[in-house]
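Q: I'm writing up a methods section and want to include an example of the input and output format. Could you take the sequence below and give the corresponding predicted structure tokens, formatted cleanly so I can copy it straight into the document?
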Amino acid sequence: MDVLVVVGRTPNTETLSAFVAELKQGDARVHLVGTFSERAIDADWGLDTVRRVVTDGANLDWRARARALEIHPHERFWAYVGADKDVLRLAKAADVIVAVDAKAYYSAWELARLNPAAHACVGFAAAQRTAQALRDGTARPPLAGQQRSEPDGRQDGERSSDLALLLGNEKLLGSRVGSALARRVPLLPLSEKTRVDMTRNLVLGLFGAKRNQAALATASATASRLRDTRARAEVLRVASRRALSNGFTPATLLASAEADLAHADHLYEAQDPEGAAEFVNHALATAFHRVAHIDQRKSPLTTHAAEFARLTAASTAASAVAGDRGRAHPVAEPEPDRPRRLLVVTDGNDNFLGLIRDHYESNPGVELRFLDITDHPGIKRLAGNRRRLMEYRLGGDAMYGFTAEQHLRPHLDWADTVFIDWCAAAAALFTSVDPGTARIVVRLHSYEAFSHWPRLTDFSRVGDLIFVADHVRDLALDSVPALTGPHAPRTHIVDNGMDLAGFALPKSADARFTVGMVGIGQVAKDPLWALRVIKELRRRDERYRLLLIGGDMNGKASKAAGAYERNFRRKVTPLEAEGAVERRGATSDVPGNLRDVGVILSSSVREGCHVGVMEGAASGAVPVVRDWPFFAGKKHGASTLYPAEWVVSTPEAAADRILAVTADEETWSQHCRASEKHALATWDWPVVRGEFDRVFGIG
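A: Here is the clean output for your methods example:
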């Protein structure tokens, strides 16, 4: 008989040695795995295996290591245990798997799932009874790897622990009756620790049994009965994060973030900046998870912006992290006998900076420096470590502030104006350091509004904040408290700088019947909507086809993105086979590809300013723009960024417009010329560059 003992901490040595001795008398092989002090384990006990699991993440790849930092400690422990091949080998050969402490419960359950023939239990006494029953031939068959031990003679705590392990059993929870009964258990009169342990296992089991809403309801019901802020936060976070990892936005999203912030406030009041930073980080990671806002075709931020604003505004810790430290010195005018010094900062994405750099590099009145923090590992590490940044903002980790000062002070002392493109990690880092006399300008494109970064940027140190469109500014002002506070920056709308003149190339012979899209690599582009448009068009006239330009979607970003990608692939493949759709993939020659496009389509659910549409219009393609659902019906959106006649609400309306503007060669040509004229007069670089001069204060 092989008995696998899983421990999350060093067990009582007297109890362990007695347990091993008793099992060895019955000719059992005993294997100890987990985390423990090796000095506490005596070789004379006769353990057949002593395997200490590595918990520094060295056995994980960087993605798994990053995920491990965000999940519950019990799940994190399983990440390390499950990556140990020796432990997995022992589990598959075990007859009995025993979890000794609460930290090991979840890992023991997972190991038992790998070996359904094993009897899993909690505690030494249960393991002894199970081993004896196996020797006597009286043991009950395991229940999908989870054995319910006989209750006679059990201590209440031990019985509760075994029950908590059992509640993770997906087979039990997959039935309506089993699910209903199990969900009542955490509401029994139990200690808070026991209730939390049970609920965690139960919630994870319900998710495993695909009873998602039951899992979330269980977490909410249990949390409402917990007095301890940490326990309440833990229960809600386990449920919410699992839902997000499964690819959908839970109803508990904001409640979970609020619970984490409540505990962060408690720790902040107790002058524990490290602990407070951990829970603020938990809250923001949940509230602004990419599955909730980026990898689906809707986002709660657009419908509940005020609630997201209150989330951070009502928390003392989150408000302290956001900062309102102001400046030690006012912005100074540059010395009159030298050029204005402009520092342009980005973080690995300079897609929208080419024309800006060229413009100011050729301006004799400007001395330009360019800083991409990805080229500076020390700065990049500081910018990416948001936990340390938060701790510093909360009054701890003085070394973080000192190191940031050392890295950034030379740049800030040199510059008259610092322009930070993207309101993301670089903006949060730069505003953690007093700017001296430099003026700070930040540009927020679109996606950042749906991320945690604007909530980590100290806008009291930002003089000017540039948005690319009114609807993005509306959303940011509604959801980021610091942007409407007494020290909020001035805001500006400035279009992206684009060289559009080079797109006006002659169209190919069949362009009139070709609908084009530039960029399909994100869920936000919603190419499925475009497939509906082309199917409706071809139902009326089979000459039309859809040309997709751009790289494929990254389905590995999340389960939500993966599900969308698979659905799109399934629906586009037959359309390609019949010649209705052509995919050209990524290209460096967008103007050349747009020669084949007579109608440029935006099927997105959200955009800042859809560059592909602007480039398509400049090429002479007629724009057809979906009324982006994230902003439809609001004060500003697609119909205020573009001429209203370009914007449609449904695939059928899109098909109607396409058929109307391409009805004949002359009609199509007239619309093409009008589109090109509007694009060049509105968004071309010679028109836009003066706005940057104005904001930067450069004459």
